[in-house]
C-alpha cells in the first residue's frame, strides 16, 4: 500500500530517495517523509499531502547524509497528517523505520511500551516498531540487525520494513512479511524499495525478498537471511520492464493488477479482526451492546459498485441478525423522506469516501438522529469525519476506475460487520459462527483458484466481444453479482448490459433474448437453484448463449452451458466474493478485445464529488 525507498552509499541519499518516491507516487499517496542519517544523528522531514509538499519543505531544509529512507504513505492507522507520516523514530531518535502493511497487535505492544516509559507522537501502528527496536537496543546493547530480529518475533501482521540507525551509517535492514521488499543489486551502493519502479533509475538487477526474509544491506553488498537467522542464497533477477510496466508490476493494466491483488485485499480486510477463538473484534465500532440492542432497523446507502456490495450485505445482515434492512441508492435516499430515528443504524458504503450523494446521505441520517457507520477504503476521507464509526476495507489504493478489489474488500467488511452484530447480539450459535468464519478464512486461497480461470475467461471474452447486448441474471446474493457483472461490462466495454433478478426476466428483459445473445447466469447465492436452472432453460430455448457461474462439479449446469466457470465451495452468503471475479475478468478481456483502455473508461471518474 505504501511506498518505501532506502539508500546507503557514497552519494547524497536525499536526491535518490526523492527520485524513487516520485516513481511510486502514481498510486496516489496522502503524505510523505524522509529521514537521512549524518554524523550520528537522524534528520527527518515529513509532510501531509502530495510529494510536492515534502519537496517544498526540503528546499528550505536540505538534508545532508549518505544513508536515508523515504516513504509515501497511504494511511491505514491514523489520518494523513504530518505527525502520522513516516519515517517514525524511537524515543532516542536513533532508530528510523518506514513500514508498509498492518501490525495487528500494535495496541498491546504500544500499551506495554508506554508502561515502560516510551512517549508516542503518532496514531500509527508503525511507531510501535521504531520504539520496540529502540528499546531492545537500549536494554541489550545489541546491533540494529539483532534488535530487528528480536522485534519481528513480537510483531503480528503484515510488514515490509526498512530500518536504519543513527550510529550504523553503512547499514540498512529490510524485512519482508506479506508485503513486498525489493533490494537493488549494485556494486557500490545499497538500495531497497517496496516496488521495482523506485529502483529502475539505478539498477535493473534486483533481489526480491521472499516472504519471511531479512536483508542486511551495505554499499555493494546484500546479505539475506530467513527469520531464524540462517543465511539464504538470494537470486538476482534482471528486470526487462520499462517504467510503465513496472508500475503495473508487469500487468498490462491497473485493473488486471488489481483483480489479481484481491487475495491480499481480502486478507488485509480480515487482518486483526478475527482471533484464534473465532471472535470478531472491530476496534472502530465502539457502540455498547445496549446501543446495538436498541437498533430496530438498518438502512444501507451507497452508489455504483458499492451499492451492489450493500445489496449482498442486506441479505447477510437480515439472515444473521433478523434486523430488517432497507437498501437505498444514496442519490435517492434523502429525497424519499425515509423514516429514521435514534434506533436506526445507517451503513454508508463508499470506496473513495468522497461520493457526494453518499456524504449527503450520511449528513441527512445524522440529522435524523440515526447512528452511522461508514465502510470505506480511504483513511482520512470525508466520510470518516462525518460518520460515527468507520470500518476500513484496507484493500490498498485502487487506480483502475472500475472498482474491483475494493468491491471484494467491501463484501468481506460487510460480512464481518453482519457477523459481528450477530455475535454481539447473541443471534448466532457459536458453532455456526465458527463455521462461517472458517469459510471466510478460506476465501483468499479460493480467490487464487478462481483467478486461475483467467485463460478460460479470456477465451470466452474473445467469443462474445462483438455482442450488442449482454444479460446477467441471479437470485439472492447472486443478483448482486449479476448487477455488478453487468455494470463492470458496460463501464469498460461499452456493450449494453442488463443485470436482472432472474425471476423478473419474464416480466420484460426476456423480450431482448434472441439468437446468440449472451446470458450470464449466477447459479449460486440462492436457495432457488432449480428455479435458476429453469431460467437458464428459458433463455436457451430462445437461442441465448449461456455463460454459467456454478459450483464445482455441477453436472446439470454443464449440460446447459456454452461456457461454464466452476467456483470453489463456500457458504451461500459468501459466494459473491468468488463469483464476481470471473465477471470482472470477462469485462476486462472483452474491453481489451475491443481495443479499449479498461483503466480509464470514457465519461467515468473514480470518485464522483458532484450530486
Ligand atoms: C464511481 C466509480 C465507481 C464507484 C462509484 C461509487 O462511479 O467509477 O467505481 O462504484 O463511483 O463510488 P464510491 O467511492 O462511493 O464507492
Can you lay out the helices and strands and say which pair or pack?
Elements: E1 3-8, H1 13-24, E2 31-38, E3 41-48, H2 51-60, E4 67-73, E5 88-89, E6 95-103, H3 106-115, H4 126-140, H5 144-152, E7 157-165, E8 172-177, E9 182-185, E10 190-193, E11 205-208, E12 213-218, E13 221-226, E14 237-238, H6 243-247, H7 254-260, H8 262-270, H9 289-293, E15 297-302, H10 304-321, E16 325-329, H11 330-333, E17 344-350, H12 356-367, E18 371-376, H13 382-386, E19 389-392, H14 405-425, H15 430-451, H16 454-464, E20 469-474, H17 477-493, E21 496-501, E22 518-522, H18 529-541, E23 545-551, H19 555-560, E24 563-567, H20 575-593
Parallel strand pairs: 15-16, 15-17, 17-18, 18-19, 20-21, 20-22, 22-23, 23-24
Antiparallel strand pairs: 1-4, 1-10, 2-3, 2-4, 5-6, 6-7, 7-8, 8-12, 9-10, 9-11, 11-14, 12-13
